[in-house]
Structure formats: structure tokens, C-alpha cells
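Incident log, structure service

09:12 report received: a user says their structure output differs between two submissions of the same chain.
09:20 pulled the input from the user's history:
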Amino acid sequence: MRTALLSLLVMLSAVAALTSCVDEEEYANTPRGNFEALWRIMDEHYCFFDYKQKEYGLDWDEVRLRYASRIDDTMSDDQLFEVLGAMLGELRDGHVNMYSSWDVARNWSWHEDYPSNISDSLIRRYLGTDYRIAASLRYRILDDNVGYVRCASFASGAGEGNLDEVMYYLAACRGLIIDVRDNGGGLITAAEKMAARFTNKRVLVGYMQHKTGRGRNDFSSMEPQYLNPSTGMRWQKRVVVLTNRSVYSAANEFVKYMKCCPQVTVVGDRTGGGAGMPFSSELPVGWSIRFSACPMYDADKQPTEFGIEPDHNVAMGKDDLQRGTDSIIEYARQLLDQ
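09:34 re-ran on a clean worker, output below:
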């Protein structure tokens, strides 16, 4: 028998002071024991039950009854992993994962069920071969004097010195394109640091709640999130942010921040979402569980778990590759030319 100890560890670094004491609960290391442990962990600590019940009719109690009938104490670990992973998939949450030594249970329907609206070969065409690199950023000046910054990840954020250099190099440009398509997230602090280059004053960007008890609706009051202006070089001209369905988690937050900044327009597809700060736990069998525990909202107190709509919805055409142009980038250039 192992102990299913819920160890709430912050996976993103935006809220360093969050700690919680959780009583230990013991479950047998059997298929039935692991099933009960997983369902209970999610029941007491997952943060989007009410929202997802309203969005698509999620009934977590019904899910328990339906999947309990598939549990048999003679089943193999592979079979158990498959059933438990399918149960977690009912939450439709890219921040909900189960990790074994041989696989990761996941739900990626937030981007797999949609057009990609991006082409690596076309991005290479716009960047060329002489682009500059500053940490995770790739950037250059396009031939119409528009700055282009490709930010594919916030996993390792650019430092303040990096951002100063990028701002200084692109300062003469008449406008700026920030391409975060396919950015699956990373550090919220990195997203915040970059967004801080586009406001000259403290601005309200959203709200956050914390779990205060084991009830499904036991949350703190909404706590405001503010974006403070950077003390480094800040951009004062127009900006277009490019998005697609694979913009997720910290990148989703970046888009949320940028929509609150002046002279910023978002172009492309709805983002993928991922507005729950993820925490982790462990099952008796030793498999790790990650799940959304703290919900985040936009400045209007609306959930962004299922994504953020762009200001201009633009898709890539079927003939983009043939023409050698990216419709979303070209639309952004037209906006900056107006």
C-alpha cells in the first residue's frame, strides 16, 4: 500500500507564495484503489468543474459511475493507465496529464481538432538566414520596415538585457509583429516580462482565484492581476500579435496581457486556452498527476480556459505555400501600413 499524498507544487512560477497543507489519504495500490484516489484528487482540487459543466455539460459524478464499471482488480497496468487517462480526458484540459514511465495521458483536442494556421517553411522564408537571436527570440526587420519577432516558447524567457537589445535594434521600425503561434507556454514570468515592454503604466490584465477547501466551488475571491511597465526600453508604436490554436498556457496569458496594452491588435485564430495554474499529485501506483488548480480570468472577469478570440480572425489559405506567403503575417503588415 502506498500513500496518495497530494503535494501541491506550483508548476508555473507566477505565484511563488502559494502553499497548502493537505491531509494524507491512503488508498490501496490496486486498480480500484488508484481509480478512487485519482477521482478524489480531481474532485477536491480541480478548478473548472462548474465552468465546464456550463460549457459542455460535464458531470463529474456521472463520470465516476461510468468509469468505475470499467475497473477490475485483475487488469494490467497498461489497461488501468488507458482507463484512467480516458477519464481525465473528460475534463478537456491540456493542463491535465498523468505520467507513467512509458506514456503520458493527455488531451490535446484544444489544438489537434483545428487547422494549424502556421507553416515552419514560410516562417523560415520571412526570417531568412541572417535573422538575429536573443535567447528564445528570433527577430529581423522585414523589407517594409516592419519588425518581426518570432517567440515560439516561454520555457526559457528572454532576460531584460535581451529585450533591451531587441527593442533597440527594432526601434526605427514603423510597427512590430510578435508571432507567438505554436507557443505552448512555459513561464508566466517570462510572458509577463515581455508584455511589460508594451505599456507605460500599471494596467489591470485579469483576475485569479485560489482553492480554499475541498468543495468543488471552494475558492477565494477574485484577486486582480496587474501588469507593471518595464524599467527597460519600452515600445511606443503599433503592435500586431499573431495567434493560432496552439497558443497555450503562459502564451495564452501573454495574449491576455497584450490585449490590455495600448496600440496592440491580435490577429489569427482563437488561442488554445489553458487558464488554470497547474499543480501536481501522485497515485499509489507511483504515477504523477498534473491538473489545473487555480483559475485565471481576463480583465472582464471572463474565463480564458478555452481560449481568447483575436481582434481579426484570419486563417492561412490553401495556396499560401504555393505563393510563398503567410496570409496572417501579410494581414498584419497591411494593418501596420494603414
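09:41 both user submissions now match this output. Likely a transient worker issue. Closing.
09:42 reviewer note: Residues 1-24 have pLDDT under 50 and may be disordered. The first strand starts at residue 2 and ends at 4.
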